[in-house]
Amino acid sequence: MNGFELDDRPAPAVGALKAAQRLGAACIAVLALGFAGAATDSAAASVDEAIVARVIVPISAVARMVEDEKWKPLLDEIVQNAPAAASLGTRWTPQSAGWQKARSALGARYTRNVDAYAKSDHMPRTLQAALADTISTDEAPVYEKALDGPAGSTIIRYQAQTAFVVTVMSNSPKEPRYGQPGWAERMTALRKVFDERAGAAVPHEDPAQKMDAGKFIGDPIGRKGTQVWLSAVGKSALKIDGVVNLMLFDEQNAIQRELADAVAGTR
Hints:
- The protein has one domain (about 30-85, about 95-265).
- The protein contains ten helices and no strands.
- It starts with 15 loop residues before the first helix and ends with a helix.
- It is an all-alpha fold.
- It has helices at about 15-30, 35-80, 95-120, 120-135, 140-150, 150-170, 185-195, 210-220, 220-250, 250-265.
- Helix 2 crosses helix 6.
């Protein structure tokens, strides 16, 4: 086994978006508690751009949280299985300084590559396409108004949390499916993870607006808005998967050198 061969490594789920949409319907219920034509097109584009501007930062944060949830344990495994550390036996553990040095170096590479993707235009284009596919030109102004209204931050918080929970639970065959034992417990645990990691990129909920936010999320346009989140986060997470896999392949020699250097300091 080399440093990049992972046991039980989860593969991208086939039909993940459809699965996410089905699971999302269940989670939403829980979490919700000529010139004329040209002018119309221009107005619709302006509304979509306003929605993108409002939610692109939290959507980017959620996609990254999804991938962190998947990749950070796998990066731990790469470090633990470093070929150069085979002779160290039980001395090569997460508690050792060398192991921590190796993990920090690999984590820094992961962060640089994900940062580079986040700065590209792929995620905004993905969100724009999801809006165009899901919310009609008549519905988009209603969604924009809700996001800019008093309950807007709480709506975004709920939709961000839903997208995180649903995408994580849909992307791995190890996760319980809706209705299976442990599903509700896992969803609750992931909601806690979201609350701990979301940070300033995702707006906080306003307790005074929970009722209005829940009502909107349960309405048809609110449900479509959540589907936009599921689509944009899911596709962006898959793209990050590709970025990280390419990093592990293209940079494998440099990674192995860094791991070997960290091991050498442990002997």
